[in-house]
């Protein structure tokens, strides 16, 4: 909590102290030092070709005032693979994001959404969230504010990251290649301040990047030098751009992993389910270290995000498919005590974890101990009165889709430095329990693109601190607030048992659910 | 609120040239010279001035949306013809100081001359003058930090001149032999002349025939028919005294401008300014400072809009506030 407070109070550093901090180091190098040859000059250089970096490029290219800026993007991975990404309609990537309506409308505004394969996205209109310890429940939907004559408003839209990245790339390709350089398969080997060119501009305060191809075949050519009027760090949690600007981060590791998987569901119960309404389910499991969420995808599939302890995550990943699906079903239905027991059961020893995927059909006749345990324990567990409050049963897991990633909290002490701006994970990494990570990144993109547009139409230098402080001013507090809220929720829902904390959080949830005004306020805030 | 630039202009004018037509006291000069090194520091004493700069562009854009100065009649010049290139306007910034406005305008000059799209400022070139050698040097040094601006400086589309307004007028009147002494030839005049935070620092010395009015007349002489003279200043009211003298110049952390920046007595109300401008138009129509009559006011246009600084949010255009605080003003010379 102390670190959180420190992060939240950062913007109030007095101006003279900030100045002292800004002019600190300004150097990042992993290999060579830049040569003295004069670099090629770009207006905006974006390091990192993920959704945030590509989003910024697409937004700049789509806006008339900024479409003529000379822009470059540097990405280590092969973007050609991302361009040609494709999966059949039954299979979905396990890296899925829940885009808020404001994220989607931003993507529509910059012409990206037209390039998204909308057959592969799934909007949902309702969200069921409950406490696994106390059973307290909250339903998020827009029914309170929707007239009976219109469709229920969307809470969020599930989109595969690959689908979004492919759409961003094709939107950028649509804008032509004038004033645009995309350096794919390229690493930034160093960033340093430029030099004062005799009989030319003084670039001594400009970041100059040395680019090197990742493939060694073309290593004969010297590293390319590019100077950036504005260097954008969209390069993730270990951002080299952030290191160059000497911007510190604070934060912690949650000591939790997020287990993801693509699941197939049983057919919906036609009696209890409302047609055309898709629901996301999230159950907090205080005894297991975090919430489990089931987010709808098209074709009766769903995406799983289960935040849990590192040991539990390792256990889950080692389970054969049938045991895995049984455990997921149990996690939405059984009591904490039963669940804790199931996660300590001996793993099926007949088959090794790696070979289970292929041999699962042969062993299907045998009774899976986890399935057996679930069936028996369900008979002794009271279930909610309304079946629509529970997700449909999971029937299978897509082969090779079970994976996990560490959960962390990071917040950069500032998002800007002269000629440097940080966006997305380079600026902030938050707990995924509200699915806000990518949305915050897209919020950064929208704000930075708007700032650059304002600068371009008002004779401002897009890399100047006076320009960039508009961006930082708009985003820093917002991101700190949402990141902090997710952190508090995580901590609140990690207190096991039925003590005062559990009582208080359940009371709070019940109140919010019962008072329409408060809930409406929260939902608008989440947009 | 943000007028050091002009002050310094006139300070130097007074000290450097004894015979000058301007007059500013020497202690004001030393006050602003002390600020020179922090001119471009975004957190420094000129911060409020930097924050105002984008609004100057907004105001210029609003003037241009009212009326774009017509292209010069001489189509023989080698300049790109306005039929293909809409960005043909020649700017003059009087009292450019460290170049906050001049540099931002130079940045808006299109680098590709073949461009068909109109930029917000429609600028083709800018000349910026200031009598202070120190400030012109600061401006030139800073311009080198931006390759775009540096290229404009080298190509001559952007020019810093270390001279006074009177020097400029004199050089224009002597240069072309064909011109009449009454006015500079049209080609040497400017489509837009800017005078940001300058007029409130003109000291009135009737003995030398110097007044804000005579200064404005000189400025108007450099505006082409159909062109604009655009500026900003502060109204002389009780709120502006409270805001600019008491609050803004208070010690840190309340104050945002250095002490001694403003003299409330020299602030100019919009009504006074409009009167001076009208008289200036009539006088500038006749080089010998004889009233030219109402004919000089035909086609004239007067614009005025207030701006308010909200700490933490920056400057905002607030129509109506011109009568009690900072405001932008513009006058268009009849075509």
From TrEMBL, chain A:
Domain of life where this protein originates: Eukaryota
Keywords assigned: Ubiquinone
Protein name, UniProt field: Ubiquinone biosynthesis hydrox
Organism: Aspergillus brunneoviolaceus CBS 621.78
Organism ancestry: Eukaryota, Fungi, Dikarya, Ascomycota, Pezizomycotina
From TrEMBL, chain B:
Superkingdom: Eukaryota
Annotated protein name in UniProt: 3-demethylubiquinone-9 3-methyltransferase
Organism whose genome encodes this protein: Aspergillus brunneoviolaceus CBS 621.78
Lineage: Eukaryota, Fungi, Dikarya, Ascomycota, Pezizomycotina
């Amino acid at each position: 909590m102390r670190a959180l407070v420190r992060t939240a109070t950062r913007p109030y550093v007095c101006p003279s102290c900030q100045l002292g901090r800004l002019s600190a180091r300004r150097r990042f190098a992993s290999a060579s030092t830049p040569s003295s040859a004069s670099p090629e000059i770009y207006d905006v250089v974006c390091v990192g070709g993920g959704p945030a970096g590509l989003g910024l490029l697409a937004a700049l290219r789509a806006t008339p005032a900024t479409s003529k800026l000379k822009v470059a993007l540097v990405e280590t991975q092969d973007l050609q693979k991302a361009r040609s990404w494709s999966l059949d309609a039954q299979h979905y990537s396990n890296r899925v994001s829940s885009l808020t309506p404001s994220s989607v409308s931003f993507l529509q505004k910059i012409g990206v959404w037209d390039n998204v394969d909308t057959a592969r996205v799934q909007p949902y209109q309702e969200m069921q969230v409950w406490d696994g310890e106390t059973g307290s429940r909250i339903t998020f939907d827009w029914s309170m504010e929707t007239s009976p004559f219109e469709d229920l408003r969307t809470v969020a839209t599930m989109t595969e990251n690959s689908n979004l990245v492919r759409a961003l790339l094709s939107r950028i390709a649509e804008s032509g290649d004038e004033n645009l350089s995309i350096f794919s398969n390229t690493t930034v080997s160093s960033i340093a301040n430029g030099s004062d060119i005799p009989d030319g501009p003084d670039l001594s305060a400009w970041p100059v990047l040395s680019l090197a191809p990742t493939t060694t075949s073309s290593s004969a050519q010297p590293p390319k030098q590019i100077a950036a009027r504005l260097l954008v760090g969209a390069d993730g949690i270990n951002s080299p751009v952030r290191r160059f600007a000497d911007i510190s981060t604070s934060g912690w590791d949650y000591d939790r992993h997020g287990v993801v998987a693509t699941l197939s569901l049983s057919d919906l119960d036609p009696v209890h389910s409302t047609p055309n309404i898709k629901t996301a389910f999230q159950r907090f499991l205080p005894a297991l270290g975090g919430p489990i969420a089931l987010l709808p995808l098209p074709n009766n599939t769903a995406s799983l995000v289960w935040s849990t302890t590192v040991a539990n995550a390792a256990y889950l990943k080692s389970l054969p498919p049938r045991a895995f699906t049984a455990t997921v079903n149990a996690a939405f239905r059984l009591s904490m005590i039963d669940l804790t027991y199931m996660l300590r059961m001996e793993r099926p020893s007949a088959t090794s974890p790696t070979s289970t995927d292929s041999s699962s059909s042969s062993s299907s006749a045998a009774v899976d101990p986890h399935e057996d345990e679930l069936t028996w324990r369900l008979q002794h567990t009271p279930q909610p009165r309304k079946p629509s409050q529970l997700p449909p049963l999971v029937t299978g897991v897509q082969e090779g889709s079970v994976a996990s990633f560490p959960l962390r909290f990071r917040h950069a002490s500032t998002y800007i430095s002269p000629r440097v701006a940080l966006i997305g994970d380079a600026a902030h990494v938050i707990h995924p329990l509200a699915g806000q990570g990518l949305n915050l990144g897209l919020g950064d993109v929208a704000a930075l693109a708007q700032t650059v547009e304002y600068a371009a139409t008002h004779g401002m230098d897009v890399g100047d601190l006076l320009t960039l402080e508009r961006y930082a001013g708009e985003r820093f507090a917002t991101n700190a607030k949402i990141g902090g809220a997710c952190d508090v929720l995580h901590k609140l829902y990690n207190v096991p048992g039925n003590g005062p904390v559990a009582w208080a959080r359940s009371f709070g949830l019940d109140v919010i659910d019962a008072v329409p005004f408060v809930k409406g306020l929260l939902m608008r805030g989440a947009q | 609120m943000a007028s050091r630039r002009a002050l310094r202009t006139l300070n130097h004018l007074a000290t450097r040239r004894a015979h000058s037509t301007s007059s500013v006291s020497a202690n004001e000069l030393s006050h602003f010279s002390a600020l020179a090194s922090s001119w471009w520091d975004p957190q420094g004493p000129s911060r409020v001035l930097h924050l105002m700069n984008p609004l100057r562009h907004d105001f210029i854009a609003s003037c241009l949306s009212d009326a774009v100065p017509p292209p010069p009649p001489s189509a023989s010049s080698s300049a790109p013809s306005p039929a293909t290139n809409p960005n043909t306007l020649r700017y003059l910034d009087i009292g450019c100081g460290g170049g906050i406005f001049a540099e931002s305008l130079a940045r808006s000059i299109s680098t590709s001359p073949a461009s068909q799209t109109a930029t917000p400022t429609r600028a083709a070139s800018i000349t910026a003058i200031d009598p202070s050698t120190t400030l012109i040097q600061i401006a030139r040094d800073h311009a080198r930090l931006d390759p775009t601006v540096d290229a404009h400086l080298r190509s001559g589309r952007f020019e810093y001149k270390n001279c006074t307004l009177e020097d400029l007028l004199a050089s224009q009147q002597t240069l072309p032999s064909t011109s009449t002494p009454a006015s500079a030839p049209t080609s040497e005049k400017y489509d837009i002349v800017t005078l940001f935070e300058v007029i409130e620092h003109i000291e009135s010395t009737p003995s030398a025939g110097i007044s804000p009015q005579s200064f404005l007349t000189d400025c108007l002489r450099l505006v082409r028919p159909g062109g604009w003279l655009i500026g900003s200043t502060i109204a002389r009211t009780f709120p502006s005294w409270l805001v600019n003298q008491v609050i803004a110049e208070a010690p840190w952390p309340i104050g945002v401008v250095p002490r001694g920046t403003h003299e409330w007595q020299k602030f100019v109300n919009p009504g006074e300014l409009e009167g001076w401008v009208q008289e200036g138009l009539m006088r500038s129509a006749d080089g010998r400072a004889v009233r030219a009559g109402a004919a000089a006011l035909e086609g004239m246009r007067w614009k005025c809009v207030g701006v308010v600084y909200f700490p933490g949010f920056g400057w905002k255009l607030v129509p109506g506030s011109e009568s009690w605080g900072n405001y932008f003003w513009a006058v268009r010379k009849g075509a």
